[in-house]
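User: If you would, consider this record:
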Amino acid sequence: MIESGRVVGLFTVDRRTAPMKKVKQMNALAGRGIEGDRYFLGTGTYSKKPEPGRQVTLIKSEVLESLKDNFEITVKPEESRRNILTRGIEINDLIGTEFYVGRVRLRAHRITQPCPYLEKLLDQPGLYKELWDNGGISCEILSEGVIKEGDIITTSLD
C-alpha cells in the first residue's frame, strides 16, 4: 500500500540559536542538506558529528496539534526546530525506508528525539516527555531538487 501525505510548512535556519524562518521552497542537495540551513553550513548543534541522517528533518503537524489539545503545550511549527512540517502521513513508519517529498528522494534514518533544552527554551513543562518518539524523523537527501509547500509525500512516484 502506498501511503501519502503532504508538506504544510517549510523552515530553515542558518545557525543553531537563531529562530527558524518559514520559506515557500527549499533546495535539497543530495548528500549535503538543505541549502542555507545550519547543517548544510556546518553551524548546527551536531555539525561536528556529521551523519547522513542530519540533512533534513520532518515533523507531523498532527503531533503539534495534539500537544496543544491534550496537554496545553504550545509549540509553533518553527519552534519545533524541524525543516518540514507534514500532514496525513505516519512519518515514524518511514524509518529505514526511502520515500519522496515532491520529486526529492529521501531516506529516513531515525526518529529525532527531543532535547530537554527545547522544553526549557519554550517554557513548556512536559514537552520533552510528550514529544518522545514523536519529535520527527531525521533523513538523508538522496536526490537533488526543490521541495515546496504543498508537495506530496509518498513512498512511490508511481
